[in-house]
Every structure is written in C-alpha cells, then in structure tokens.
Amino acid sequence: MTRWIDRPAAREVIPLLPGESFRWLEHDYPSEIARWNYHPEYEIHLIRKGTGSYIIGDQIGAFGPGQVAMIGSELPHDWMSDLEPDEVIIGRDAVVQFDAEWLERCIGVLPEVSAVRELLELSQMGIIFGGQTALDAAEQIELVGRTSGSRRLSHLFALLAVLTHAPKEEKMLVTRAWFSASEGREGKAAVEAGLAYIFANLNDRIRMSEAAHLAHMSEPTFSKYFKRASGLTFSDTVKKLRIANACRLLATSELPVSTICTEVGYSNLANFNRQFLAEVGMTPREYRNLDDAERPSGMSPRLGLGTANRLVEHAHP
To answer: pLDDT digit string (tens) for 41-97?
Structure first.
C-alpha cells in the first residue's frame, strides 16, 4: 500500500458511461483509485466497512462504518483504512459523483430541486453526516447502485433531499471553504491551476510565478483571484497542504519524521517542526503517538466541533 500512500494528491478524471448523467461506483481498499485526489465534480461518499483516518481539505479525522460525507468541487480528500499486513477490504466504499453544471440544468427545469444549492455551498467545506441522516443517505446510495434508468435518478434526488434537509445536529463541517464558485471564471481558473501546480510539486520548491503562468495570469492578478476564490493566500495554501500531507503520512506510514519532512517539501527539520506545531498544535512525533481516536476529528485542534456547529447554525439561521 506504501506506493499509494506516499503519492501526492492527483486530479481525478471521472468519465461517464454512455447513457449516464452521473456516476456511481464502489471499490476495494487498498486500490489505485482510493488515494488523495480532487476533481470538479461533487462527491457523496459512504464508508461500508473498516476504520481509519480521512483527510478532507487540510483536516484529518477518524472514520468508521456508516460514515457519509459530501465533498465539494476541487476539495482534496482521501479515506485511509487501518489494515493488517496484506489485508484487503472488499467493497469498502460506495460513491456518487455528479457535475454541478448538470445539476444546475436540472434545477432550471425542476425548480423543486433548487434547495440543493445551499447544500452544494456547504459541501465546499466538506460535510460529515451522522444519526438518522447518515442511515437514510446510506440506503439511498445503495439503491442508486442497484437500480437503473428513472429509478436510479429518483434515488439520487431522494439522496440529495435527505442531505439537504439534515438537521444541524446531524451534520458537521470539516474544513474551511476550499473554493467559492461565485468568484467566477477567473477565480476558478486560478484555483484549478494553483491546486494542480501545488499537488504536482508538493515535495519540491513551489513558486507562485509558475502557478500564475499556468493560469495565464500575471502574478498580482493570479494572487488576487486565488485568494478571493480560495479564501487563503497562495503561500498559506501551500503550507496547509504540506502539513496536511505530513499528518497523512504520520498516521498511515512508518516513515521517519525526517523523511516525511523532505517528502512534504521542507528542507529544514527545525522549520518543519515549527510549522507543524503552529498549524496542528503539537509536534509531528506527538501527533504520530496519538491513537486514531485521539487525533482531531473533523476540525483542527484550534477549531472544534462546537465551532463547526456554529458554522452550520450561521448557514441555516
């Protein structure tokens, strides 16, 4: 499994089969497609079996069977199961993926579906659902996989309705908003080019000038649109993703801290330790020594579940 764990995130290409307007799939773990990735499509993800750690955006948390999460467009994510040597978890996940533009066209002719827009906005922070909402959503996800044609479509809309109307106590926002679609074409271009460049060079030297060049923008223009669309400066995004990748490697590998330092793009161990402490609230060694249940679940140590619930309350007054 190491050959998948220590790879950086990749932009995933999600092909649709003929006659499909969205995608449903299931996969085992480990698997080459079960890795740190991001894509423009929205994703609803069900864990059927196993326990482990997830990474959503720049946050690490724990998962178990029955967890349902919704991942926004371009939001990096991965679920890393705890495995015995040579263990394979068959059918670990069931996943629904759909394109926002397709859903907007649906809303254009089916205004009853318009309430889902608010769900899409919240999913840019990643949402983990619990309680009856997770149970009902899991049932609809499985029904999507077992049906076809109009029945399949009806179960997708039923799934979206379940998540849209989830009570606030049954949903937790995971991270900051990764990308605001309202910032338009320039913001989208800056974020897409920036993330692609960052992930391709996460263990190497990263220059904003190169990302700006990929976005066909000047540095000041790129910097402005990237910050407006992502909510962070380019350098802060690089730091958060490097530390998140370090958390992932600390939790899922036995690589020495000094090796992880280099793997995530730091050339100086003291600086890496200092940046990790500032971001996570503990040293890399302290983080590695935590049990899975002790690691921050859903939010960073500095932004707990109470804050997540207040964010949901703010979004749904």
So the answer is: 999 999 999 998 888 887 878 899 999 999 998 888 888 888 888 899 999 999 999
Higher pLDDT, 177 or 257: 257
Domains in the chain, please, with CATH?
Answer: 2-173 (2.60.120.280), 181-294 (1.10.10.60)
Write out the two tokens for 83: 């495995």
Task: Give the Cβ contact number of residue 277 at 10 Å.
Answer: 15
CA distances (Å), origin 309, targets 124, 125, 173, 315: 16, 13, 7, 10
**Contact (Cβ atoms closer than 8 angstroms) between residue 243 and residue 260:** no
User: Which range, 100-114, 142-156, 233-247, has the best average confidence (pLDDT)?
Assistant: 142-156
**CA contacts within 13 A on the Cβ side of 186:** 12
For residue 191, count CB atoms less than 10 angstroms from its CB and return exposed for 0-12, middle for 13-18, buried for 19 or more: buried
Residues 316, 310: Cα–Cα separation, whole Å: 10
- Interatomic CA distance for residues 226 and 209, integer angstroms: 13
Is the pTM value of this prediction over 0.85? no
Which tokens is 33 given?
Answer: 């497609």
